[in-house]
Design brief:
Layout (H helix, E strand, L loop, with lengths): L1 H19 L30 H26 L3 H19 L8 H4 L7 H7 L1 H26 L4 H29 L7 H26 L8
Helix pairs in contact: 1-2, 1-8, 2-3, 3-6, 6-7, 6-8, 7-8
Length: 225
């Protein structure tokens, strides 16, 4: 029973990680969002071609991460904090994909007018808050996951590679936040979309690899710990 649970958990987590980078469908579908300058969330906004597809893909990816993390805990009975953070991340993705996004976003639409506080309205709206929680959750997950990989019998070379991918994802997330902040206060961020997409790809890679390594190197135990 346990080996099957471990295999199922690994498959779910890999698929969830891949699903996190569903923006790559943009490369093959006609959308009204530029790779360099648009937010990834714009792909699921009302009025965008195939917006339902991107929303469903996000929902599926989040659900797979939640299910995979739950199955991973049942298999390992270790690293509870790591699996709980994965569940929280998956829930954030599901909530974010479920929030209404009417119309498409453009830089002109989100730039604040002089004398207004539109920037605060944007960062305090539900979508912005959930996105912030999602980013912080991954940051803490990366730290906990790195510590868990040290406790597991993961080869040092692989551990360093996974840590490098996760760290690069965190740095992209920080750059993304800085560029978004600059944009919202009236600046220009012509590479924001590109930075965000690179960061999401790195995050997806980490999500597909790191938790799976914990499962592959963990021997099932009947004793919770």
């Amino acid at each position: 029973m346990r080996p099957v649970t471990g295999t199922v958990a690994a498959v779910l987590l890999v698929l969830g990680g891949v699903g996190y980078a569903d923006w790559v469908l943009q490369l093959f579908l006609p959308v009204q969002a530029g790779m360099m300058t648009s937010f990834i969330s714009e792909l699921g906004a009302g009025g965008q071609p195939h917006h339902a597809l991107f929303r469903v893909a996000d929902l599926a990816g989040g659900a797979l991460l939640v299910a995979g993390a739950a199955a991973a805990w049942l298999h390992t009975r270790r690293w509870l904090t790591t699996w709980c953070l994965l569940v929280l991340l998956g829930l954030c993705i599901i909530i974010e994909a479920s929030l209404p996004l009417n119309g498409t976003f453009t830089f002109g639409a989100i730039l604040p007018r002089p004398g207004t506080r539109l920037w605060w309205d944007r960062v305090s709206e539900p979508h912005g808050l959930v996105s912030f929680v999602e980013t912080v959750t991954f940051l803490v997950l990366f730290a906990c996951g790195t510590a868990a990989l040290r406790q597991a019998s993961v080869p040092a070379n692989w551990r360093r590679l996974v840590a490098a991918v996760g760290l690069a994802a965190v740095l992209c997330g920080i750059a993304d936040a800085a560029l978004t902040a600059a944009l919202l206060v009236g600046g220009h961020a012509i590479v924001l979309g590109l930075v965000q997409r690179i960061g999401v790809m790195l995050t997806a890679a980490w999500l597909a690899i790191a938790p799976t390594w914990l499962l592959l190197t963990q021997r099932p135990s009947r004793v919770p710990g």
